[in-house]
Amino acid sequence: MNDKLVVFSYYAYFALFLLVEFVFTRTRLGSGAKVTREDRRSLLFFFVAPFVGMFLWMMLVSRDRVPANPSWPLWILGYAVGLAGFAIRILAKRTLGRFFTVRLQLEKDHEVVDQGIYARIRHPLYLGFMLEWMAPPLILGSPAGFLFVTLPILVGVLVRIPREEELLVEGLGEKYRSYMGRTKRLIPGVW
């Protein structure tokens, strides 16, 4: 596989990532004025850790300390996984509309959103985000990238989901409990 194509496609992927997250969909912090410990933790796991991990990973790859063996099958799989993540994030953000925030909080007149992609799973935004960050190690053919880039996202998601569901049950009560009973967290029909 051509090294220049791999490097170009890797950077093109991150340009797409930024477009999806900040141009094609809107990112709202939420209405809370005070930044909480949970906000800081989310920032660390979802934004800082993956980019720091990516920097360290790329530094190790460039010094031949960590192998990168791109191949067409992995490259295609990486882009397919990443594009699926982008599509899921776009659908989920648009379905949530004004209820989407980066912070864990309920908006004024918050309601259970259970249509569209939310009819199948409760946390499609997290699923999409994980898929987006699984793609770079596949594109470069570097399994070590999963440790540096994908693992922090996975940890962040697994820590945040129970906290978010607790907040939603507390704020929305039986409507959200009922919704939890008929949907899975991340993988339809599984978990």
Automatic annotation (TrEMBL):
Q: Where in the cell is it found?
A: Membrane
Q: GO annotations under biological process?
A: methylation
Q: This protein's superkingdom?
A: Bacteria
Keywords of this protein's UniProt record, alphabetized?
Membrane, Methyltransferase, Transferase, Transmembrane, Transmembrane helix
Q: Which GO terms describe its cellular component?
A: membrane
How is this protein situated with respect to the membrane? Multi-pass membrane protein
InterPro entries (alphabetical): ICMT_MeTrfase (IPR007269), Metal_cation-efflux_comp (IPR052527)
- One MF term from GO for this chain? protein C-terminal S-isoprenylcysteine carboxyl O-methyltransferase activity
Specify one Pfam family.
ICMT
Under the heading PANTHER family, the entry gives:
BLL3993 PROTEIN
**Which named protein is this?**
Isoprenylcysteine carboxylmethyltransferase family protein
Q: Which organism is it from?
A: Eiseniibacteriota bacterium
